[in-house]
Design brief:
Blueprint (H helix, E strand, L loop, with lengths): L1 H9 L9 H5 L19 E5 L7 H15 L5 E6 L5 H7 L5 E4 L10 E5 L5 E6 L13 H12 L6
Parallel strand pairs: 1-2, 2-3
Antiparallel strand pairs: 1-4, 4-5
């Protein structure tokens, strides 16, 4: 019985990046292309979405909630997908997003993930939406903390 519980609860858990070497040598400038909102002087969030990732079924409501809460405050949103065939589906699932970006080179990054840019286009956060094994959607996740800091002070300490 314990094995069955373990199998269903933990089978989809994995590292944020399957390539630890790539993560260790990560260049934040590589994500600059994902920040179309920055020239407009607004914070910008890119939601990395892969429909084949099991965790997305739990995260969608939380992602939509973030978009609905922060878009009226001037934050812009984009969705990055791994293949052009996912563009239409992403637009339907995330109607608050300004655009959908095809980024085939993000296949090794865990999904759902997010990149938060400040108003100058500087990356202040890149990683999962929550810390923990269960795709938690409670308040105070890294994305919300970074956005709150950006909106309240105009800058954020990269995390």
């Amino acid at each position: 019985m314990v094995f069955v519980f373990w199998h269903f609860m933990y089978r989809d858990i994995g590292r944020f990046s399957a390539d630890d070497e790539r993560l260790a040598s990560f260049d934040a400038n590589a994500l600059a292309a994902f920040s179309p909102g920055a020239p407009h002087g607004r914070a910008h969030v890119v939601h990395f979405w892969n429909p084949d990732c099991a965790c997305n079924r739990f995260n969608r409501a939380h992602t939509l909630s973030i978009m609905e809460d922060y878009r009226p405050l001037g934050v812009t949103f984009s969705v990055a997908v791994t293949h052009s065939r996912h563009q239409e589906s992403a637009l339907q699932r995330f109607p608050q997003a300004k655009e959908v970006i095809v980024a085939a080179d993000i296949d090794n990054t865990s999904s759902p993930a997010s990149a938060v840019f400040d108003a100058l286009g500087q990356l202040v956060y890149f990683g999962p939406y929550s810390e923990g094994a269960f795709c938690a959607d409670d308040d105070g996740t890294p994305v919300e903390l970074m956005l709150d800091e950006l909106l309240n002070t105009g800058h954020a300490t990269p995390g």
